[in-house]
Write a structure and sequence with these properties.
The chain has three domains: 127 residues, no CATH class; 105 residues, Dna Topoisomerase Vi A Subunit, Chain: A, domain 2 (3-Layer(aba) Sandwich), CATH 3.40.1360; 176 residues, no CATH class. 49% of the residues lie in helices and 12% in strands. It has 15 helices and ten strands. A four-stranded parallel β-sheet has the order 2-1-3-4.
Length: 490
């Protein structure tokens, strides 16, 4: 028996044919990315220093030595901070808002460093506060303007076929088609697809899905494309389950002067919104991120406070009249209280105007049915017009609910449907609402069939994934206009 002499060497990965001539990319904008980066950085720094000189002279009548020192430190500090924070004119795949955000972060850090240095050296009193404040604001705006002009210029060049990058997309079925269409829709990034390779067509349905064979055939097809077309990048638009294939192909291409990207399709794994974060260079993909975080959460909260307060004040006389009508026709109590699911499923007590006669449900919460004998005459009108929901405006203003969001269900129904409807509990990733996208699309009322609840959940998740202030205003408008015309309200 032969003794084990240790771990075996990994066999060399297949590769493209070495020394093969490739089409050479040409164009006046190619080969000067580093120089263009230096030019843009020089424009940023030069514009900021020019503004410092202008505001100092405007306020003090001259450019004293301490302003000269400030200018010198800024000229050294700005490039270091911008490089560290990722400011780059080559943010081809990023949107304008992201670039403006990165610029803001770099500028704020630069200003904080300057203020700290001035505080330590006890020189803050030497500078005009008015001049420095104006400089801080104008300095950011001029950088945004420079980058906006550059971005617009590059967009114009790309529209004329200049500054175009060429890419090959390697993928599987729908993943491949979706990403190719994504690149086509976003022509402003200037990426033209010169070839595609679909793994699903490389193997016949009767052949076993052998990774080695697929990789070999993909390389042969890739060799053919690269020999005929200029290619700057390769995008692997593949499901997460094809990670082994991505690794094999990436190893084969490691020696090629071409950018390699993986666009993982996580649709089978993503529970809600996905986002990519980073920890010491390690990317972390969040599969169930809520879109209502940070600035968006603040916008929605302001919306709830402002609109909720206005609606609460306007509806106060109406609510008083409704309360008197309930007392006069069916006595007290005026309000109906029930535990329902709140943010992250935490129970909240929801208030509504009482629309039913007092009854004992013995722990079994039964939804209202058409012509339900428990509903009072006044209650029938309130339910049909959704006026029974008005007391929940108090919850909106106090922060337990939102004006728009997934409608909260009874805790007992959450327990029931949580195991019956796929991704049901994801609807509690945001605050529940008085009205929602599902309700204005007709999915309200009794859910005697599981399919109806599934449709309601599908609309709720659509709302969460696509939230915007405009969508909220649309839902509010549709709710108001359909108050007296919804046949499913009973």
């Amino acid at each position: 028996m032969r003794a084990d002499t240790g771990p075996r060497a990994k066999p060399p990965a297949p590769s493209l044919t070495p020394g093969t001539a490739r089409p050479v990319a040409t164009g006046i904008t190619r080969g000067f990315s580093a120089e263009l980066g230096i030019l843009v950085l020089a424009l940023d720094v030069g514009a900021v220093l020019g503004l410092l000189y202008y505001f100092a002279v405007q306020r003090t009548g001259g450019f004293a030595d301490h302003y000269v020192v400030l200018a010198a430190i800024t000229a050294v500090l700005m490039p270091l901070v911008m490089r560290a924070t990722g400011v780059s004119h080559r943010m081809r795949l990023s949107g304008w808002f992201l670039e403006a955000t990165v610029l803001a972060r770099a500028w704020v850090i630069t200003l904080m460093c300057l203020v700290s240095l001035s505080f330590v050296t006890k020189t803050t009193e030497l500078f005009s506060r008015e001049a420095i404040v104006k400089w801080a604001v104008a300095g950011y705006l001029v950088q945004v303007l420079i980058h906006a002009v550059l971005r617009s210029t590059l967009h114009q060049l790309r529209a004329q076929g200049i500054n175009i990058r060429y890419a090959v997309v390697v993928g599987r079925g729908q993943c491949l088609r979706d990403f190719s269409e994504l690149l086509a829709r976003n022509a402003w990034i200037g990426t033209s697809v010169v070839g595609t390779i679909d793994f699903d067509t490389l193997m016949s349905p009767h052949e076993p899905p052998d990774a080695e064979e697929i990789a070999a055939r993909a390389l042969a097809r890739l060799e053919e494309i690269l020999s005929r077309h200029v290619s700057d990048a390769i995008y692997f638009a593949l499901p997460a389950t094809d990670v082994v294939l991505v690794e094999k192909l990436a190893e084969c291409l490691v020696g090629e002067p071409i950018e390699i990207n993986w666009v993982p399709d996580l649709s089978s794994l993503v529970l809600l919104n996905s986002s990519v974060r980073e920890l010491e260079g390690q990317p972390i993909i969040c599969l169930s991120d809520s879109p209502l975080a940070g600035g968006r959460a603040l916008i929605k909260r302001v919306e709830d406070i402002v609109l909720g307060t206005i609606l609460l004040i306007i509806s106060a006389p109406l609510m008083l009249a409704i309360a008197l009508a309930i007392v006069a026709t069916s006595g007290t109590p005026v309000l109906f209280r029930q535990k329902r699911g709140g943010l992250y499923g935490k129970p909240i007590v929801v208030w509504k105007f009482r629309t039913m006669r007092a009854h004992d449900e013995d722990g079994d919460v039964k939804q209202a049915r058409r012509e339900d004998p428990r509903v009072t005459p006044v209650g029938a009108f309130l339910r049909r017009t959704s006026l029974d929901e008005l007391p929940q405006l108090v919850h909106v203003v106090t922060g337990r609910m939102s004006l728009v969001g997934p409608r909260p269900h009874a805790v007992e129904h959450d327990t029931q449907y949580g195991t019956m409807v796929d991704r049901y509990l994801l609807r509690y990733k945001i605050k529940p609402g008085i009205t929602g996208w599902a309700q204005v699309n007709g999915w309200r009322g009794e859910t005697e069939q599981v399919e109806k609840m599934a449709m309601r959940v599908a609309h709720d998740l659509y709302y969460i994934r696509n939230w915007s202030l405009g969508l909220d205003l649309k839902v509010i408008w549709l709710t108001i206009t359909r108050m007296f015309a919804d046949s499913r309200a009973y």
